Amino acid sequence: MSMHPRLFRCAILAAAALFPAAANAGFYSGDELYAACTADKNGKDYFERSYECLGYISGAVDAFNTTREANNLKSCLPGGVTINELRTTTVNNLSKNPIDRKKSASSQVFAATRKAWPCATPKKAPAKKKAARKKR
């Protein structure tokens, strides 16, 4: 009995997640993400690759937002941003920065989303003026 290709790929990804990667290396590279996101529409694995692309990007963004929430920060993304907009932004960034595709895919999703939707800089409270001392 053979396993469906998509189930096989998911099983491989799940198994790989059980083994630690090097501390400075990502599990999935920007090159791999770019290949998944730019798969040939006429290819037999187009739908599988498209879901892989969308799933990875949406998972990465959810992880970023969860980290922000854990630190009592709000998401930097506007409420109406769609998964397809996240995909387009990420693919455009990967396309324009091929040298960065050697880095982890999650770092590239992060870079792309921060360029498109930068986080608001917290406003500093105005400095309190020192009260002038009256001369006697």
TrEMBL record:
InterPro entries: Rap1a (IPR041238). Pfam families: Rap1a (PF18602). Residues 1-25 form the signal peptide. This is Rap1a immunity protein domain-containing protein. It comes from the Bacteria. The lineage of its organism: Bacteria, Pseudomonadati, Pseudomonadota, Alphaproteobacteria, Sphingomonadales. Keywords: Signal. Residues 29-119 form the Rap1a immunity protein domain.
